[in-house]
Automatic annotation (TrEMBL):
Source domain of life: Bacteria
Classification via SUPFAM superfamilies: Double Clp-N motif
TM region positions: none
Organism: Streptomyces lonegramiae
Classification via InterPro entries: Clp_N_dom_sf, Clp_R_N
Residue span(s) of domain Clp R: 127-186
GO terms for MF: peptidase activity
One GO biological process term: proteolysis
Name listed for the protein in its UniProt record: Clp protease N-terminal domain-containing protein
Record keywords: Hydrolase, Protease
Amino acid sequence: MFERFTTSARDVVRGAVKYADDNGGGTGGGTVGEAELLLALLDRTGTPAADVLTALGAAGRRAAIERDLAAVRRRGGISAEDAKALAGLGIDVEEVVARVEGAHGAGALAGPAVPPRRRGRPLRRPFTREAKSVLERSLRMSVGRGDKHIGDEHLLLALTARPGLAAHVLADHGVTYIQVEQALATHRAKAG
């Protein structure tokens, strides 16, 4: 599958691995997940995905998106929307997180913060099930669109196509699958 990735898409994957190596750029965990893929996409410039993220205003809100990713991770994967829904049932997610952290330490729900090591060197960063699903979905989207390659735009589409950490955070910032599709169509019309 990776032989079909464009240079830009490969750079996104490499960037995601780097975020995991750096302990997720604030997202923690030491694994490559949706958050790391999204942060690596936000690093891109001059690519279809970068142009779409800029057009939709997400590129200018990178710091806020990064904070929101870290907050969702701190809450054990519960999105802001889910927290609001639980609040409607009388469950204060922030109170639950505070109690868990009080008993087990800061970031207790975020998962392991220290990446595994072997003889002083970090192991190859594992991809989460969700990140693998994004990569597989990007292939299906590329094929479905009749493209012969997998570009960073396919990774962005795959991140927003199904509910997940990245899709929820992007939606909180006004970036949805439909908007990405429309912006890509506009981008292709201008480029073609």
